[in-house]
C-alpha cells in the first residue's frame, strides 16, 4: 500500500489503542482501590464516556476516509473493518466500567457484608482487567501464533468472569434473604458487578475482531 495509507493506518491504530488504554487504566486504578479497601477513592477515577465516544466517531470517520481513498485489500481491509467495530466495543466497555465504578461506590458500605463482596469482586475485577488488557495487546500483535494464544487467554478469562459472577450472584442473594432491609444496596452491588462481567464480554468481542484482522476467518462477537 502507499506510504500515506500506512501513515493513516498507524494513526488510526494509535487512536484505537488510546481509547482502549484509557479504559484499561480506569480498571487498573479501580482494582487498586478495591485491594486497599478504599472504595471512596473510586470517585477520583476520571473516565469520560462522552469524550471517548467523540474520539470514537473521529476514528470511524478516519477509517471511512481511508477505505474510500485507498481501497485496501485482504488483510488491510480486514483490519480497517475490525477497527470500525472495535471502537464500538470499546465505548460499550467504557460505559460498563463507568457504570461499575459509579454504582459500586454508591452502594458499598460497612452495613453490608463487605468481606463476602470483596472476596468475589476482586477476582472478577482481575479477570475483566486481564481480558481487556490482553485483547488490546492483540491489536499490536504481528505474529499469528501469538495472536491465537492471546485470543485463547481472553476466552479463558471471559469464562472465568462469568463463573465468578454466577458465584457472587448466588452469595449476594443469600445475603439479601438474611438482610432484607439492605436488599436495594445488595442489588445495586450486584448490578455493578454485572457491568464488570460485561466488560469481559466486550473484551472477548474485541479479541475476536483482532483475531479476524490478523488471521482472517469469520467475525464472532458476543
TrEMBL record:
It comes from the Bacteria. Residues 19-95, 127-209 form the PhoU domain. GO terms for biological process: intracellular phosphate ion homeostasis; negative regulation of phosphate metabolic process. Belongs to the PhoU family. This is PhoU family transcriptional regulator.
